[in-house]
Each structure stands twice: as C-alpha cells, then as structure tokens.
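Practice problem 4.
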C-alpha cells in the first residue's frame, strides 16, 4: 500500500483518518467501527463493502 495514498485517504462516512492493517489487507475507521477491504492493492471505500468491527476492534 502506497504511503502517500494512506496519508490522503479518509473514511468516506465520517472523514476520520484510517488505520492500515497489512495482515488483514484492510483500512480501519475506529469512529465508525468499519473495516474497508483492500483488493489487489486498491482500497474499496464503499460503505456496503465494509465489514462492521466487533466491540473489541476485530
């Protein structure tokens, strides 16, 4: 994942900064408790593609 891209990407819902989880290949929005997938190096920033995080952040 390109570091420059990570610097400018924000959550499409609340505009918060995202946390990159390399092992899971996803970007996390902690305020919205959503994980956006990264497929073939491309972040999928659609709410309907995101998975809801559990209360423990997984």
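Answer key:
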């Amino acid at each position: 994942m390109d570091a420059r891209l990570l610097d400018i990407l924000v959550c499409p819902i609340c505009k918060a900064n995202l946390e990159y989880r390399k092992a899971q290949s996803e970007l996390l929005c902690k305020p919205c408790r959503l994980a956006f997938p990264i497929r073939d190096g491309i972040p999928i920033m659609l709410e309907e593609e995101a998975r809801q995080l559990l209360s423990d952040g997984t």
